[in-house]
Amino acid sequence: MAPVEGKVTKKRARNVANASAIMEGMFELVRSTLTAVLNEEQVDRAIAQAKKLPAVKRMLAGVKAPKAAGGGGGPKAVRSAYMAFTTLTMAALKASNRGDLANMTLVGQTWNKLPPAVKGKVEERLNALKERYNAALSAGTATGGLPEELKKLERETGAEAIDFTALISKYKDYPTQPKAEAAPKGPPGRPKKADAPVLALEAPPAAAAPAAGEKKAEEGDGKKKERKHKHDKKEKKEKHRKADE
Questions:
Q1: Where is the sequence biased in composition, kind Basic residues (predicted)?
Q2: Alpha-carbon distance 85 to 18, whole Å?
């Protein structure tokens, strides 16, 4: 029966390893999908919090492959400057006995509160660290963790060491910095044509109505002319009659 049990154990271990790979792939797929439309830092925090839920813990515990003797699965690659910041900051806070500040939510919020000038310098350093550390992992030459690799980088470049504990203490109560607006994608659109000027067709000014006195005077003049015309016509007829006689 021993050989059969050995086969079952190997098969189960292989199935567990496959299931573990599938689960990790699913988490990575969800992460890559969400980061396409959401903030990368928020997605990482949400996934980290989801993995802490009891139901998720039980699910992962049932599919993860047994750990090898002497440790876990080894160091992981750094995906972003934010990930490096949270890892290094949590390590620095614990090393300096600042457990009151060693909180992932607080660290993530402080990252968004760093002034642009400070954050730019930190990001530049951590991006260089990310490239260096990931290259060492790929080559199998990484002998220490991320904090040790940062110390090596700072010694080699002569850069001043970043005090992560001081950054959290100083900027944790600052207001969140506004995000820079993304540049519009695609070629610039054609400029809109200016609207043609609208010509106002003004009506000619209406003649002013005559005053009441002027109106009466005009009516009187008209009647006088009419009476004179009748008188002249009557005289003309009278002259013609006398001429005929």
A1: 225-245
A2: 32
Asked if residues 107 and 167 have their Cβ atoms less than 8 Å apart, the reply is no
When pLDDT is averaged across residues 117-138 and rounded to a whole number, the result is 94
80, 40 in Cβ contact below 8 A? yes
Q: Report the number of secondary-structure helices (H) and strands (E) in the chain.
A: 9, 0
Q: Which of these, 224, 107, 195, 91, lies nearest to 149 by C-alpha position? A: 91
Rg (CA), the chain: 46
Cα 145 from chain centre = 33
Rounded CA separation 9/98 (Å):
45
- At 175, list the tokens: 């207001």
Question: Each residue of 168-220: pLDDT tens digit?
Answer: 999 999 998 887 665 566 565 565 555 545 444 445 555 555 566 666 666 66
Residues in the chain: 245
Mean pLDDT score of the chain, rounded to an integer?
Answer: 76
- Distance between the two ends of the chain, CA-based, in angstroms? 169
CB 168 within 8 A of CB 101: yes
Question: From residue 223, how far is each of 148, 150, 210, 216, 233 by CA, in Å?
Answer: 119, 115, 18, 11, 15
- What token pair was written down for 132? 């260096």
Contacts of 38 (CB under 8 A, 6+ apart): none
Q: Convert the pLDDT of each residue in 85-112 to its tens digit.
A: 999 999 999 999 998 999 999 999 999 9
